Amino acid sequence: MKTIKSMYAWLRILWKRPYDEPLGPILKQRMQQWRREPTVVRIPKPTRLDRARALGYKAKQGFVVVRVKVRKGGLNRPRPRSGRRPKRMGVYGYSPHKSHQLIAEERAARKYPNLEVLGSYWVGDDGYYKYFEVIMVDPHHPSIKSDKDLQWLVGVKKKRKIKVKLTKDMIKRIKESLEKLEKQKQA
């Protein structure tokens, strides 16, 4: 029996080696364009549809996709102006103890305070920057409020929890627990 791969499976295969033939030249052009753009840019639709859908993106109102660029490296601190011995300057070997992806999510959340971060994924890097796309959701939008998959996001007081990792297993467990609660209320 021959298995048929879905469109998302083919997209996933393409993005495993993004700098090879079909995507390589396109990605190179995109990097040149993205480098000149601001740090946080709202885009109309996701570049990697397979990853976006896996993280919970739906092509409907209330979802916002943002591309964020983060400078590569340890993000060195500025050299202090006041005097001290060089060892105590805290310039070299400084690391923010966060991944570039988390930094990108935080920057997107700061730019759009009324939205919640659903997830993010890598879309490319050049010599100086790493680029991530962050999927954000407006919890007050009517289409999001009526969506059963995003019910966990609606009505919760804003805790500004930037990183929300939801795997399919977690979503399944949440749905099961909600169904149990509904059955208990009915009984």
Keywords:
alpha+beta, Ribosomal protein L15e, 4-stranded antiparallel β-sheet, 6 helices, 4 strands, 17% strand
What does this structure look like?
With 187 residues, this protein is of the alpha+beta class. The protein has a single domain (7-76, 90-186), classed as Ribosomal protein L15e, CATH 3.40.1120. The chain is built from six helices and four strands, in the order ααβαβαββαα. The chain is globular. The mean pLDDT is 86.
Short structural description:
By secondary structure, this protein is an alpha+beta fold. The protein has 6 helices and 4 strands, in the order ααβαβαββαα.
How many extended strands?
4
CATH overall fold name: Ribosomal protein L15e
Radius of gyration: 20 Å
Question: Whole-Å distance between the termini?
Answer: 47 Å
